[in-house]
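2024-03-11 09:14:02 INFO worker-7 job=invfold-0412 stage=load source=structure_tokens
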């Protein structure tokens, strides 16, 4: 019997992750896909460095970033002897421990791993402010220059730092030696050197910063000879030109036409290799007639399991604020989640008790939390349902909807449950003052905000939610006694309005203002204004446990 249950759980697990796709093709020639099973083998003890992007396939910001990262990979494809690009999908259950080990604070996160890195090195986080392709290229150069300034680079690497003088007697007459002369803050020379790093047997390139004023306009390119002679190499460019391309093409045309023909650049510019993306035929969807999906236990339990097993456990340690936030979130789940079975409730009770006993600590090892979760499930007989295919939150393609959709459902469900419990507790009180009093003390809503602030791993989404809820107590006063439910409804509609037409929007499930007119005519007042009393009634029914299937 136990064996059958295990096999059934395994089948469910495999089905679920047939729905969990990646944002990058494993056949990409420029981006290596890393997993738990191959990370150490591919990254450690290599002469090249790595930039590894940790992402989640459900993360909208990661989805938007993927084409730029692929273009970035294309633009530095010839730097592979010095640095390679790789990705890890942390939404894959098989990679949870790997992402937790590297202490990924949110998605996307890029980390630099130096050459010959060993097990135990957790990499250096690389911050890319605007995540544009040029910014990625420039930041990569900065990281490499910083590394070579403080460490002895591998012998296979070209010299990236600016040279003060070159020993003419050591020059090899069999191959040309070129120097990019540039200003101190310029990155051009390093980029050009990296572009030719796979052709070091044919050409040597240095970069130099002049100590004195020079008559030639910077930057310029020259060839030096063993005799000490300097020859200026013509590079035709004007202001606004891509200097890197102009310098690279000038060198290719003059010195490497046989091994790297210039004609190739035109082909490269014409064909940009991007990983295949799932495309869905667009259909015209009448927003006002869009079907309102029933809330499903499958989606709620998936959100519960993913949030606790993958989001919370992504960190290596929790500080006191994070411990408090986790304690509050578990308490809100314990009090307001619509448990369909006692087993799940006992699991949350036991995990809550574990965190409660450690709530006064300044730090909590996430390894101890993961071990407790395993103990509860394996030894104490309480567990959450295994991850199953999405129901109401299923998207038209694997990268749409899913976890973010289910998390919104979870949040709405527990705020409605809290609201109903509040009404029940005060049902016999006819005092008008009590009925009309403002509720700014929603435990569930503040627990939700704490969860998003400290554990939700989509960086962009988290920042927006935290900004939106910065003055939560004051904002709640506007909605009076129904404040928690309506504030979350207002916030969700605001997010939908912002993402309407965004590339992350599922074309078969467009972002709408909820509820649509066909689902709740009473919710709409004159001139498309909202009747908030009716909205509250609709939400209270829609997310009520008796209507969850």
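2024-03-11 09:14:09 INFO worker-7 stage=emit residues=549
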């Amino acid at each position: 019997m136990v064996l059958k249950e295990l096999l059934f759980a395994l089948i469910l697990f495999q089905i679920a992750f047939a729905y969990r796709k990646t944002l990058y093709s494993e056949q990409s020639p420029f981006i290596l896909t890393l997993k738990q099973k191959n990370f150490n083998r591919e990254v450690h003890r290599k002469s090249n460095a790595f930039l590894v992007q940790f992402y989640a396939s459900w993360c909208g910001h990661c989805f938007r970033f993927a084409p730029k990262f692929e273009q970035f990979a294309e633009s530095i494809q010839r730097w592979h002897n010095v640095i390679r690009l790789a990705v890890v999908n942390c939404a894959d259950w098989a990679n949870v421990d790997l992402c937790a080990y590297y202490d990924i604070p949110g998605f996307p996160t890029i980390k630099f791993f130096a050459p010959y890195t060993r097990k135990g090195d957790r990499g250096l986080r690389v911050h890319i402010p605007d995540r544009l392709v040029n910014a990625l290229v420039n930041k990569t150069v900065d990281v490499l220059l910083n590394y070579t300034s403080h460490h002895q680079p591998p012998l296979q690497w070209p010299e990236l730092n600016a040279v003060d003088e070159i020993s003419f007697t050591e020059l090899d007459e069999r191959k040309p030696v070129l120097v990019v002369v540039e200003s101190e803050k310029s990155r051009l020379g390093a980029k050009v050197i990296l572009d030719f790093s796979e052709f070091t047997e044919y050409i040597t390139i240095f970069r130099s910063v002049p100590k004195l004023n020079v008559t030639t306009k910077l930057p310029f390119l020259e060839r030096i000879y063993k005799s000490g002679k300097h020859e200026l190499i013509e590079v035709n460019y004007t202001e606004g030109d891509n200097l890197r391309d102009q310098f690279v093409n000038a060198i290719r045309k003059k010195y490497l036409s046989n091994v790297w023909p210039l004609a190739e650049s035109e082909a490269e510019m014409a064909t940009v290799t991007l990983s295949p993306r799932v495309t869905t035929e667009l259909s015209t969807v009448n927003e006002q007639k869009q079907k309102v999906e029933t809330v499903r236990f499958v989606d709620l339990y998936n959100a519960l399991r993913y949030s606790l097993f993958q989001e919370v456990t992504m960190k290596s340690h929790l500080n006191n604020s994070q411990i408090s936030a986790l304690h509050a979130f578990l308490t809100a789940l314990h009090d307001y989640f619509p448990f369909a079975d006692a087993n799940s409730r006992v699991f949350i009770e036991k995990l809550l008790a574990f965190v409660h006993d450690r709530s006064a600590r300044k730090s909590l090892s996430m390894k101890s939390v993961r071990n407790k979760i395993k103990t509860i499930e394996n030894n104490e007989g309480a567990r959450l349902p295994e991850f199953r295919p999405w129901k109401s939150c299923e998207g038209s393609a694997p990268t749409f909807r899913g976890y973010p959709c289910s998390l919104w459902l979870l949040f709405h469900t527990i705020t409605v449950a809290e609201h109903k419990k509040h009404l029940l507790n005060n049902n016999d009180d006819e005092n008008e003052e009590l009925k009309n009093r403002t509720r700014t003390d929603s435990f569930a809503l503040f627990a939700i905000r704490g969860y998003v602030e400290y554990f939700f791993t989509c960086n962009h989404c988290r920042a927006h939610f935290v900004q939106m809820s910065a003055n939560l107590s004051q904002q709640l006063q506007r909605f009076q006694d129904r404040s928690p439910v309506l504030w979350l409804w207002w916030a969700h509609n605001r997010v939908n309005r912002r993402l309407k037409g965004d590339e992350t929007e599922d074309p078969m499930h467009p972002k709408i203002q909820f509820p649509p007119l066909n689902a709740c005519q009473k919710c709409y007042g004159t001139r498309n204004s909202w009747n908030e009393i009716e909205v509250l009634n609709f939400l209270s029914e829609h997310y009520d446990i008796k209507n969850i299937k």
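2024-03-11 09:14:09 INFO worker-7 stage=report msg="The CA atoms of residues 35 and 440 lie 45 Å apart."
2024-03-11 09:14:10 INFO worker-7 job finished
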